[in-house]
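Morning. Coffee machine broken again, so started the prediction first thing and wrote up yesterday's gels while waiting. Chain of 174 residues, entered below exactly as on the submission form.
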Amino acid sequence: PGLAADEALLGLDALDVLQAGWAPSAWSGWPIFHLFTIGGVATLGPSTIALRLPSALAGIAFAPALYLLGRQIGGTRLGMVAGLLAAVLFWHADTTRGAWGYGAWGLTCETLGLALLVRTMRRPDPALTAAAGLALGLALQVSWAALAAIGAGALLTASTSYVNSATRRDVAKA
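Came back before lunch.
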C-alpha cells in the first residue's frame, strides 16, 4: 500500500520541519494537528505508519468522545450506543485510515467540545469550560463546520436549560 500524493506531501513537509526547523516554507500552512504527524515521523521515521498513526488515533478517540456527548444528551445507554456505533462506523474508519488527520481530529474535537459544553452548562466548572473552549477552538482551526457544532451545542444547552427550568416551576407549583 502506497501513499496518496497528499499523504506523501504531508510526510515531506514533516521531514522539512524536522530538518530545517520552523521555517514558513517547511510548514505549508497545515493545521495544528499535523504536529502529531511530525511527532510520528520523528519517533518512527519516515514511514507509512508514522504518517497514518495520528489519524488512526483521532479515529479511536472519536468513540469515547461520542460516548461522552451521548451520555450528556440522553444518559448512559445512549452514550454506550453512540460510542459503539462510532467505533464500528465504516465512514469514520475509512476517513481515518489515511494521513489526513485534520478531518478526524476536527470531528473528535467538535464532539468532545460539545460534550464538555453541555456538561459545563448544566454544572458550571471553569476547568471544563476552558477545556470545551479549547476543543472547539482546535476544531475551528481545522474546519468552519465547527461553527455549526458550536451553534448546535448552544441550542441544545438552551433547550435543556429551558426544559429543566420549566420542570422546576411545575414542581414548585405542586
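Residues 67 and 126 are 22 Å apart (CA to CA). Going to sketch it on the whiteboard this afternoon.
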